[in-house]
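Example A, followed by Example B.
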Amino acid sequence: MADVLLVDDDNLVREVVFRLLDAMGHRVVSFDRPSKALAHIRSGEKFDLLITDVEMPGDMNGIDLARCVKEERGHLKVIFVTGHHDPELFAAIDPCLEFTVLIKPFRRRQLDASIHQIMGS
């Protein structure tokens, strides 16, 4: 099982995904803002996987968060969650960042499959 950092500004979505991940046996820490998640990462806690919404209000979106985490921590696997897949948006991401995209709405089995795919198990 993975240590997961979950970031989504939508409280309902975050709560549902948190419960799904918890039921799958993952340890989950969640935040409603990328800036809060980044501050937590900087405190030293280690995570195997970042699951983040792409579009969030404020000065940082999920892609920005993933870039910052990669710069500070090196390698972290990422699942971007979005309501619409824009290939151009993801084309600009550093190819060294290992990520997959999960389109909302999704079911537990899709989340589980995405986690197994990105984690290599």
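Example B, a separate protein, is given below in the same form.
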Amino acid sequence: MKKTILSLAIIAMMASCQSGPEGETAKTAEKQEASTSDGAVYTVDKATSNVMFVGSKPVGTHNGVFSIADGSVTVKRRKYYCR
């Protein structure tokens, strides 16, 4: 009896997974260049730059490093007003 109920439940789950909902296809536009922003542009020094991170989990932490291939960073200056 238990095997029959289990078999029927498995067959029902498999049958429900066969047909997915119909969706629309994604529409894409032509490639656009990123807009330039006003700010200081700093070019990355590949020889001495890397990204360091600390990952955490319930039982501890671990450190990691990514090397940077190329790139630049734009820093926009903000105006701060005192009240």
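On Example B: The mean pLDDT is 78.
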